[in-house]
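2024-03-11 09:14:02 DEBUG pipeline.ingest accepted 1 chain
2024-03-11 09:14:02 DEBUG pipeline.ingest length=555
2024-03-11 09:14:03 DEBUG pipeline.predict start
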Amino acid sequence: MNWLQEAFFVPTAIQAILVIAVVSAIGLSIGRIKIFGISLGITFVFFAGIVAGHSGIVVNQDILTFIQNFGLIIFVYTLGLQVGPSFFSSFKREGLTLNLLAIGVVVLGLLLVLIFYWTTDVSLPNLMGIFLGAVTNTPALGAAQQALLQIDPDDIKGATDMASACAVAYPMGVIGVILAIIVMKKLSKEADDSPKEQKMPKPNVTEFQVINPAIFNKSIKDIMRLTGKHFVISRIWRNGRLTIPASDTILKEGDHLLVISVKADVENIKLLFGEQEDVDWNKEDIDWNAIDSHLVSRRIVVTRGKINGVRLGTLRLRNLYGINITRVNRAGIDLLASPKLRLQMGDRLTIVGEATAVNNVGKILGDEVKRLTMPNLFAIFLGLFLGVILGILPINIPGMSIPIKLGIAGGPIIVGILMGTFGPRLRVTTYTTQSANLMMRQFGIVVYLAGLGIASGVHFFDTVFQADGLVWIGIGFVLTMLPIIITGFAASLLLKVDYAQNIGMLCGSMANPMALNYANTTVDGDEPSVSYATVYPLSMFLRVITAQLMILLFV
């Protein structure tokens, strides 16, 4: 059995793979266990690695560094690809308020770090480790470690101590956010058990009758100019006959219209047309094909590369083929079919029209689902290359002795966001299925956490079981609780943000999906998840960048 012992304990490339695989498998298995309904999930991979490192398992340092770095790069880049399409749009409407509040959480935390740095004997690298554990953000920990090694490449111990400090504060970071949610639920006047109206701007189908004389004998194009609200007229009933309207269709008195809009605009549209019919067209069991008789309603998938990034209006599908696009589904979210909407690979368009016309539109858009299962590896490797190049690019800032580098965490996440946002406009196909993106992200972060834990395990328990360890736990608790309590109550009392949105924003600003799972159990509906997704991209970006800046500016 000497061969097996050598495989696990003699530092080689094969041994590194075996150890990472075992640590990851054990950590993921333990991560499924819930205590009081709470689990740390994949974070247990980190602690499994710490135990392995503490038990005397030594992995070749160069190989371990490569595994950590490559895992982190894959994670942050694919994360950027995922959040890119919604990154800039999240600053619109009430999303702007939520993002400003999330920025407040980040800034308050950094100010507290500086206060502890100036008033205690804890070093800034260790304080940053505690802080990043308190906000449960291991990708930002990788960025901070890279910045520390950029200043002093030989300070390996400083980087591992930072990881140990993060591990000490991490459990309280998860529990602290949940405790803050409990406190806010008890004290918030708006936190009750009644269902909340969904505020997600998803399409709503309403039937109207034209009785407003001001729009009689006017075209749909002219009527659209009378209001600032956007809507789509998908069908017209006139004298018992159903038709698909075009932009030049003339509306007559008594026409019945089926209109797709956001729910908040229904009252304004009612004023425009005159009367709303009491029919629920939003039920899931409606057989649209049976209602339309000679028309068909199909969902067509964009799989043709030439359509990627093209504005819907420029295709002129309604005028050329006499069809109507009622909605666009992107990554599970229904969007209004606006002429300015840029189509992306994987978009699913609901199209109504005659069977022949719908089939012809399907050929234009692609509608070959099998093509979506093929990974677009070119965009992945191009993004990784550009991300690393951006990460190692020295940026000179006046007043600083050494140039700043975004690092292997900051560079790839910026490129990922830009690729996810602007890739389709440049005709670069960045589409990956949700499962493929999640697989790559999870693989990257698990490998990173396993390597980080093994590297940190040697000195972890020596660090924790001393007087400073208890101090670190206390500091971590303050860094978790104080920013979210202050921001949460300011949002509720001053800005009148409702409870469901508030707790979702707080979970997103802390990048804490475990706390989000708990938050969703305290309300009806998915508003916490929507708020979480709204602030998560910017919060993650700021955590990664500011973690490096704190080290570069104050160490």
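2024-03-11 09:14:41 DEBUG pipeline.report Confidence is low (pLDDT under 50) at residues 190-200.
2024-03-11 09:14:41 DEBUG pipeline.predict end
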